[in-house]
Structure formats: structure tokens, C-alpha cells
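If it is no trouble, can you show me the amino acids of a protein and the C-alpha cells describing how it folds?
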Amino acid sequence: MDGLQVGGYTPFRCVRTQEVRDLRTVLRDWQDVFFEPLIVATQVVHGTNYCFIGNLSVLPQSGKSRLIKIIMFVPIPGEGQPEIVDVEDIDI
């Protein structure tokens, strides 16, 4: 487990297809916005925290998007539903 820190996030990597599906399910109630995840890091807790970095666009396409961080928590099976726990703008 080189490079991992107990309690810390993994290094960022490309987002996997199932992670995108899980995120889209949690974001299904977001009206008039589209989030395109670019990279993700994970943290194992009593479940898994996913830290997604990506572009958020307001629909219909305004031509403008902004970079944001979304933290999604996915509990262990039988312990509840996935949920968004934090959303932050990233200033670059």
C-alpha cells in the first residue's frame, strides 16, 4: 500500500464507469445543471468517500462552466444510501 496514508485519500485518478453511474444517481435531483467528473480520489471510512473534481455547467448550455469539488459518501451495503456531503468551488 505504498503512497497511502491511514485515513487519507488516495491519489487522484481517472473516474471509473461505475463511479460515474453512482454519482449521477445521487445528483439526479440537481435541476438545470450538469456535472462532468474529471478525476477522483477515494477514502475508506465506514463506507467510501469519493472526492470528485470536475466541471459544473448550468443548462441550457450557457457556454460557461466552473471547476468544483464534490464529496460523495457511499456507505457499506445495508447501511444507508449514497449522499453528497460537500460541494466547493475551486478557484484557479
About this structure: Residues 17-26 form the longest helix (10 residues). DSSP finds one helix and five strands in the chain. The CA atoms of residues 47 and 77 lie 8 Å apart. The two ends are 31 Å apart (CA to CA).
